[in-house]
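User: I'm writing a tutorial on reading structure tokens. Could you give me a worked example: one chain, its sequence, then its tokens, then a sentence or two explaining what the tokens reveal?
Assistant: Sure. Here is the example chain.
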Amino acid sequence: MSEVWRVSRFDPTIEVSNKSQVRRTARVVTAIRNGERNVQSRPPSPLRPWVAKTGYLTVQAKTGTSRRKYLVHRLVAAEWVPGYAPELTVNHRDGNKLNNRLSNLEWITTAENTSHQWSSGLIDLRGEGQPGHKLTESDVIAIRASTKTLVQIGAEFGISDGMASMIRTRRRWAHIA
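And here are its predicted structure tokens:
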């Protein structure tokens, strides 16, 4: 399959290929040099992607004095994957955020994307996976095995007696045996 380029719907200075590559479009640059007008024709140039903190490939395009960052998977999907709508999310079918091949991308709702992440094990925010967790799994096991009162448990582990009760009755940390 040969590489085909399309101008991005998000930025007319960017082209996206069917092989998930992104480049700047060919352009004419005009400047004043030594008091004379200088016109240069610049060929298309590839934009170098980097991995952002979110784990997605990102590129940056400069137009005039402003710079704008774009997620590569959204650029590719918007031009080559059918079903684009602004309110939809791009899903990586295999869960690999760096795999931006057309066969791996699809447009889905945010709810469907979240469901896919949970069902495929990409995210698990239970227990110690929760960013603000206070307890460890061993703490939960110790709380369930303890014969102390709920108030004593709460003071020992820095939690409320209500939370200690919910842990004992498996309404919290239910995934721990």
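What the tokens reveal: The chain has five helices and eleven strands. The first helix runs from residue 72 to 80.
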